[in-house]
Structure formats: C-alpha cells, structure tokens
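Lab notebook page, bench 4
Experiment: in silico fold of construct C2
Operator: M.H.
Input chain length: 158 residues
Purpose: comparison with the prior construct
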Amino acid sequence: MLIVIPDIWIVIINFLLWFIIHISIAYFGTILPIKYINIDSWLFKQRKWEKNGKFYESYFRIKKWKELLPDGSTLFKKGFKKKRIVSSNTEYFNIFIIEVCRAEFVHWLVILFSPLFFIWNYPFSGFIMILYAMIANIPCIIAQRYNRIRFKRIVSNS
C-alpha cells in the first residue's frame, strides 16, 4: 500500500474505479477504428492447444454457460451486438470475427489495469482485485476466442 486511506474509502474507490475502468475501456474499444484491429496478430492467433475450439468445449463446457455472459456492446450506440447471430453471409461473419477480437482486447486491457489497485489497497486486497479482474474477464475472453475459432472455420469453408 503506497497511499494510506481509511478502509471505507478504499472500498468506495475500488468499486468506483472498477466501474470507470470497465466503462472507459469498453467505450475506447467500441470507438477504436477497425483498421487498428489486426485479427491475425499474435494475441488473436489460434493456438494448437485450443484444438479448433474443442479445448473450450471439453475443459470449460463453454456451450453450457456462454449464453449467460452479458453483451457489453449494448452499452454503447456503436456497439456490435454479439449475443445473437443476425445474418448468415460471409461479410457478417468477417465483421463478427473483428468484433470478437475487439472484445477480447478490451477484456485483456481491463485485466492489465488490476495491479493499479496495489497503490491504495493492502497487499492481500490488491491480489483480490487481480482475482476479481480475472474472474470477471477470463470467461469473456474464453467465449470470444471460442467464437472467433468457430466463425473463422465458417468463413474458411464458404
């Protein structure tokens, strides 16, 4: 803890800052021009261990819970809705792939902000903030990666 403040204020700051971080980064991600999203970058590259999406089906049972995740794109007018597929044409699927990359990037950015909380939190609480960031964002990242793999397969077969 670099800054000492009363515990009640620590809790208030934690809640407010997480809200600000989530909303700000989500908004930034929404307005980020598509030209800056490289779907072939190392971050979005499919890994061998993902086994064409089977890893997420086998180890995480993703099909049972991914529909329960919120679609943050509904918060902003320019957001691309990913909860339901609205078209079956290749152009739509290509846009969908870009948008799941955008969403995954946003969730990784949120996690990267978690060490910031060590500035005013006790070390144990700082680790709780990192744990929160992981619990809140990793399921979304898993869903984005899984969906991207599926949609890339659809596009490559069409």
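Observations: The chain has a mean pLDDT of 93. The chain has one domain: 7-157.
Next step: discuss at group meeting.
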